[in-house]
Amino acid sequence: MLEIIALFFLTRNIGQLAQQKGVPPLKWKILTIVLWIAFEFIGVIFGVAIFGPNNIVSIMLVAIGFAITGYYLVRKHLEKMPDPDF
After folding, report:
1. pLDDT tens digit string along 39-50?
2. Residue 40 belongs to what domain range?
3. Is 57 domain-assigned?
4. Please, which residues have CB within 8 angstroms of residue 62's CB and are 6 or more apart in sequence?
5. For residue 24, what is the DSSP state?
6. Total tally of structural domains belonging to the chain
7. Residue 74 contacts residue 28 (beta carbons within 8 Å)
8. DSSP per-residue string spanning 28-72
9. pLDDT at 55
């Protein structure tokens, strides 16, 4: 549940940044959610490979770390975009 709340605020932040850059915010919000879920899934796979299937807490910590990495990839890509000329 906390993860959904965090994702809500992070996507809102990405939307504001996308608006500042002059690109459609919905596209970037959807990309953030997709990358969050994809990277979290990859993190679960890595966590199971490293810690085994019985260590749920460690697996979830790795998964959340990967999910946050997905968010930062979107954010850094948006930050590199040029500001619009008004």
Report:
1. 999 999 999 999
2. 26-80
3. yes
4. 43, 44, 46, 47, 50, 51
5. -
6. 1
7. yes
8. HHHHHHHHHHHHHHHHHHHHHHHH-TT-HHHHHHHHHHHHHHHHH
9. 94
Q: Is residue 19 situated within a structural domain?
A: no
Residue 71: name the closest of 7, 5, 2, 3 by CA: 7
Structure tokens at 34: 């997709």
pLDDT digits (tens, 9 = 90+) for 28-41: 999 999 999 999 99
| Residue 42 falls inside a structural domain | yes
Quote the distance between the C-alpha of residue 20 and its chain's center. 19
To which H or E segment does residue 82 belong? none
Whether residue 8 lies inside any domain: the answer is no
Between CA 4 and CA 18 the distance in angstroms is 21
